[in-house]
Amino acid sequence: MKKLQISAMAALVAGAILAPLGAQAQQNGVTRTDLQRHDLSASGREAIQVRVDLAPGVAFGKHTHPGEEIIYVVEGQLEYQVGDQPPVTLKAGDVLFIPAGTVHSARNPGSVKGSELATYIVEKGKPLVTLVK
Known about the structure:
Blueprint: H1 2-28, E1 30-39, E2 45-54, E3 59-64, E4 67-75, E5 77-82, E6 88-91, E7 95-98, E8 104-107, E9 114-123, E10 130-131
Antiparallel strand pairs: 1-2, 2-9, 3-8, 3-10, 4-7, 4-9, 5-6, 5-8
């Protein structure tokens, strides 16, 4: 019984600490859900899949990845600015390839949630996302 009480108390404390972080993520309108991560046969590389949801009107600023990003738009529409190229707006079912280290950004120009499945082929041990000023 004592262990159950301690576990319950720990869960309450963790919830109180993590709730503001969840609220902050919800406020900015970007939700990232890690789906899988696996080492590749290529030494020092790994594959990571993430679902990224952007609320209507929300943008994720300029950033890079330490490897390639392969995007599949799951729902809604998303606008991408990749390097110096003109922005491109993709709808559900469209795909995009972003070369390693390329500065890019995304935003949801629509009135409904926009979601992508992002597959990264990256250098293991490096931060997945590096923000660019």
